[in-house]
Amino acid sequence: MINFPYLNILPFMGWLMKPSPELFRPATLIALTSLLLALAACASPATPTPTGIPLAPSTDLPPATAGFIPFTATPSPSPRPLQTPTPIPTRPLGLERIPPAARTILPTALIPPTLLPGAECIPDNPLVMAVVVEILSGDTFKAIIGETTYTVRYIGIQAPQNDRTNTPKSTLANARLLFGKTVALIKDETDIDENGTLPRYVLVENTFANLEMVKLGMAAAHPAFPDTYCDDTFALAESDAQGDITGMWAPTPTYGPKPAFVCKCDRDRYSCSKRDFYNQRAAQACFTYCNILGAGDVHGLDRDGDGIACKSKLP
Questions:
Q1: All domains of the chain in start order, with CATH
Q2: What does the radius of gyration of the chain's CA atoms come to, in whole angstroms?
Q3: Which of 210, 256, 257 is nearest to 234 (CA)?
Q4: Residue 112: which residues within 8 A CB-CB, separation 6 or more?
Q5: In this predicted model, what pLDDT tens digit does every residue of 48-88 receive, in sequence order?
Q6: Taking 80 as the threshold, does the pLDDT of residue 46 lie above it?
Q7: How many angstroms separate the CA atoms of 106 and 95, rounded?
C-alpha cells in the first residue's frame, strides 16, 4: 500500500469497499475523479516543461541552452535601390531610319581599290567611312561621317534629270545600292565643291558604286575637271550599257500632248439633252475626250457601245 506522509486515506478506502447507491451518482463520480487526479498530482514530482524545439545535446551551445535552438528574428531584406534611367543618346537626323546593324560606323573588310575590278583607276587617297542615311537622286545622297551629315555626289557620272520615266528608276537603283549601308568614300582632287557637296568615289560591299550605276544604265559618264581619274572607265561602261540597251538607254514610250479641255470627266454629269449638248458633235467631242483621259463613257452617252455618242441628236 502506498504510504502518503500527510494523508491517511484508509477510512476513505473502507468507505469505497462498501457499495452504496450514492456512490454511483454523477455528482459523486465527478468528485471522486477530481480527488484521484489531485492525489496523483501530489504523488508525482513536478517536472518543468521545456520551451523551444528539443534536439540532441550539442557542445556548440552554452550549457543553459544545450539541446534547444533559441529563437532569432530573420532580418527583412533591405529594399532595392531605385535605378536611374539611362539617358538616350541623341543621334544625328536620319540615323534612326537605317538598320541598327549599320549604325556603328566601323571600317568593314573592303578589298583595296587596286584589287577591285573596275576600281583600279581610283587615286591612292585615304578611305573615309560613312553611313548612308538618305538618297537624294541617282547620283547624290546624304551620309554621316563621325557626327556630321554631308551631301555626297558621285564623281564622273550624272543621273537622268527631269525624266519622268528614268529619273525615279535611277533614284531607286541608287537607294538599293547604298541606303543604310556603311560605305568608303575616296576623293579625287576636289575636297568640297562650290555647292558644299563632297565629290567622291564610293565603295560599298566590294562594289565600285559609281561604275555600277553606269553599268546598270542608271547614269551616264559625265567628266568634271579636275576629278578625271576614272573618266575613261566610265566612258567604256556607258558604251557597253548603250549597246545592251539597258536602263536609260532603252526606248521609252512617247506621250502625246494632252488634249484641250472639253468637258468634266470625274463623274456622271451630262446627258444627251439639249441643255448639256447643243448638237451631236458636241456630245461626241466630250465622249472622245473622256476616253482619252481614261474615264471611258462616264456620262453614258454611248448606250449601245458602238462609239457614237447621242445618236438621237444626229440630223
A1: 95-249 (2.40.50.90), 259-315 (no CATH)
A2: 53
A3: 210
A4: none
A5: 555 544 555 545 545 544 444 555 556 666 666 655 555 44
A6: no
A7: 15
